[in-house]
Known about the structure:
Blueprint (H helix, E strand, L loop, with lengths): L1 H14 L15 H26 L1
Amino acid sequence: MIAYIVIYTLGSAILFSLTALTEKPPNVTDYLAWAYWSFAHSMFGIVVGFLVRVWDR
């Protein structure tokens, strides 16, 4: 489960730069936006890890 959390969090943190392609991207120095982005994807990693564990039983 930890692997899913780490992969989704690190991967999404790297892909945050893709928000520059939106109509109104956040500033590059907006660390709060990056933190929200990374936190949300870490929560997604937790849910995916939990669901994979439940499904694998």
